[in-house]
Predict the structure.
Amino acid sequence: MKLMTAAEAVRTLIKDGDQIALGGFTVNRNPMLMAREMIRQGKRHLYLVVHSHGQALELLVGAGCVQRVEIAYGGVGRFAPTGFRFKKAFLEKKIEVEDYSNLQMTLRFMAGAMGMPFVVTRSGLGTDIVRLSGFSPESRGQGRVPRQKLTLLKDPFDPDGADVVALPPLNPDVALVHAQYVGEAGTCRFCGLTFADIEQAKAAKTVIVTCEEIVPEAYLRREPDRNSLPPFLVDAVVAAPFGAHPTACHQFYDYDPKHMNLFKQIARDDDRFKAYLDEWVYPFDSQEAYLERVGVRDLLEIRANPGWGYAPGLDRR
Amino acid sequence: MKLMTAAEAVRTLIKDGDQIALGGFTVNRNPMLMAREMIRQGKRHLYLVVHSHGQALELLVGAGCVQRVEIAYGGVGRFAPTGFRFKKAFLEKKIEVEDYSNLQMTLRFMAGAMGMPFVVTRSGLGTDIVRLSGFSPESRGQGRVPRQKLTLLKDPFDPDGADVVALPPLNPDVALVHAQYVGEAGTCRFCGLTFADIEQAKAAKTVIVTCEEIVPEAYLRREPDRNSLPPFLVDAVVAAPFGAHPTACHQFYDYDPKHMNLFKQIARDDDRFKAYLDEWVYPFDSQEAYLERVGVRDLLEIRANPGWGYAPGLDRR
Amino acid sequence: MGIYTATEIMALSAGRLVHNGDILFAGTGLSMLAATVAKRIHAPESVVFFETGGIDPRLEELPLTVADPRVMVGSAVNSGLADALSLLGHPKLKTIAFLGAAQIDCYGNLNSTLLGTYEHPEQRFPGSGGACDAASMAYGVIIFMQHQRRRFVEKLDYFTSPGWLEGGDARRRAGFLRGGPIAVVTNLGVMKFHEQTKRMYLETYYPFTDPEKIVAETGFPLDVSFATVAIPPSDEELAVLRQTVDPQRLILGPPAVDPA
Amino acid sequence: MGIYTATEIMALSAGRLVHNGDILFAGTGLSMLAATVAKRIHAPESVVFFETGGIDPRLEELPLTVADPRVMVGSAVNSGLADALSLLGHPKLKTIAFLGAAQIDCYGNLNSTLLGTYEHPEQRFPGSGGACDAASMAYGVIIFMQHQRRRFVEKLDYFTSPGWLEGGDARRRAGFLRGGPIAVVTNLGVMKFHEQTKRMYLETYYPFTDPEKIVAETGFPLDVSFATVAIPPSDEELAVLRQTVDPQRLILGPPAVDPA
């Protein structure tokens, strides 16, 4: 485990073309600091593997960093039921998209995490998720694109040999997850729902954890039942207060409805999106500088009340 | 969820011949109260499915309640590297045993819990665990005995089509697990290592949870990250202070070396084992009566120090 | 009987389909309203869970997405996707999933992925999320749709989530152990599926519309011979929905305007 | 150089095979001693984990089984079997597993299940536990054995845990991605495996024995042509083992008696 800045982590651990798993879910615990830093460093041809995303996906796709996405859901909840930049890039064929279900993606991360050769499910039998592939035939078997999206197998334990869907495991080059706490030695604790973050981290070759607080290792080891990852699975830790902003981080802050609505306004339009990047992404070489731009008033408004873990009464219209 | 006595739970929810998953591991969190009660009620032909067991297995097998066992490890650690009663029953062909590995059994519980049609692993390729079946050919497909123990499949994603081991899921009739805390509505919290208890409970048709403490539901719901099972998966809850004795229960008590050594003395010999049942099992129609027999002095000696979760300095020779 | 919006009668119509004790797989929007109103009115023992891992949260404020931090408070268990999505198919749970979609066919199969094709895409939607999983494994599915001819189609552009497949016993033959759509709740009425053929038919239409209008908005032949007018929302239902479930009208949207 | 028991030199010989940073899959007994002594002497960054789910616990007192509550304190993570056993094969971890067995063959394949057959059983051992999993997936395996002719056999009664299978590249051909036994540490010496054939050979014998005795106690032909005498335990090694690792001698057993 090595403590790094976001800039250092992106420069030394993420290459153009890498297959990257994004932690979090739609409006929650997206690795936003890392997404902004990848954009600042002009990463290209990224191959995202996600279940349901999300604000980080929107930024990365919009900024032209992404070539390829395996995904179950591309949206930001009520703020953008379908992600504007994701939709636009798909329709303009700037990205190739392979569609799965949330369970299928989760099982693939789990299979990667557990070293399973493949994993089977009944979910999706008979559908186009199983029948159709979104990646072009010529991409098959190239780089990290699997030779087959998935395949049907006969269940050897079923007397009738019913079909089941067999899925290949995912072992991304990099997992980007945002934790509430990391100990000085590298133990990680996610609070609230863990989504598929733990599976993604265990499946990945390189794990970069941004976190709200770096705490004494002993503090986390007093309650090991609550911890999520041991130090030896974590390659880099980046101190990142409000590192998921404008998405939420349970017990620390809510999603930022003001910023999300602002993004919703600009996201449909290429020029306005570029202006957003110029205003909110490119200028800031540190998280502190970005947070100054957000402003103390807004940060105070979204901070979580410890009794709820979110900001009760927050104006979310 | 229904609050019951152990006697009521065994009488109403466990039938002769049922397939039963035992929670815990060797000397830890064995469902001992339930094991003793099944013996008292003379349950027969039980079909145990376990990974590494354990004191409850020893009692149930020794008392003649068991016909069939799927297992990875039958022992009680240093107190009995191979369980005496388990070994004897196997050698005298009083039980049929099917051998697996711990990962294989865990994956089978997990597959059962997650509704997977089957699960694959590379563990055991080329070994007798994969080649040989311990159950008789005539038992195959009868009752709950699977038609095949397991089978080899070609990995459809491997260019060379390497073999992998495919295992059928387990969905036991009953799971018996011992938790530290259960809320009044039925939410369960296991503390310390969870072994495969959560997977066993989720895989089972009927879940009986014994617990050290029944607490206000709101107490557990203040920290839902730490909880293990929701109420709607739990069929019966049995209040069982020291319910895992003489095995350990993290944060409540250590294993009881005095009792385990006593058992070690008597377990090889049929007559002495019968005398043990007469002394420690049959007479007690309540957990309180059993604990009176154990005695306050011994219970105080093994009680866990909250700083460690076990009894530091306990004489374990 | 007061005035009400289409959104309000949709939420209440779906809520009425819930049985006490059902385990409700909710998304956001209408399904949150339906699940919550049912729990508050006639299904107090029902439990809501979210694919993100929030199992039976307290829900003091309405979550705006399934990953809203509001689904992590007061829960029985906070877990993750693997655990939550596995509950959908648990044989001992009567799981009812609420789903929406961009297109539906006469067997309740759903498209929430795209219009056109991968090669020539015309429109993009978010994708399955957990919808395909819920449609594959839940005990039953209740579908919300805007009732429009372009959404009720003969053939889906993309088949995301399995309903009754080609009808009859096709779903069981494909390998599904249970499930299938129970009802389609739209802004005009409630559709169900014929016992044998599994084809959609109109069960009830809302007081402000009629079967002819619904047929006109349906892109495949729809049997309306069983159709009756829906029981309008009661004052109690409306009060719970407006005052307790969504007082900020975050999901309900603008209130009904009295035409008088 | 002091006197020492066979158990002591076994623990220390195995401990010397650990590299700093290795992730150690420990059972109980000798493997606990070897892992702990290595961590204390030359591999401080190595981490011990248990198949039961205890990942890097503090281990202030020696656990007597892998499910001992002593493996649940001060850990990085307390989890369960699924998580812990999955770590064994993690490609980024150099996992070293310590295993024991009732029988071993010349390719390091192990039996910890039974003697005789299922039909005609002669003896029963506990079974694989996690041994088959560790032997299948760990980066490397160190095996503890009592060196006896009946344990070092031409053919296992039951093949529980995979070593080098039939030798050569049989292990890779069978589908294993990595791993295989590194060494067999017995009460008489340390065996390794020939690079190409994967057959066992004697690397070192303890000062109190000789290759002839070891050959006599081995039920298959054993190459002793490379054998040298082992470096005896240092005073420091013995001090750490006796005073820090197992002061109660729970696993070490009775101390050595000076024959003088």
Chain D has one domain: 6-245. The first strand of chain D starts at residue 23 and ends at 25. Chain D touches chain B through 58 residues (CB under 8 Å). Chain D has a mean pLDDT of 96.
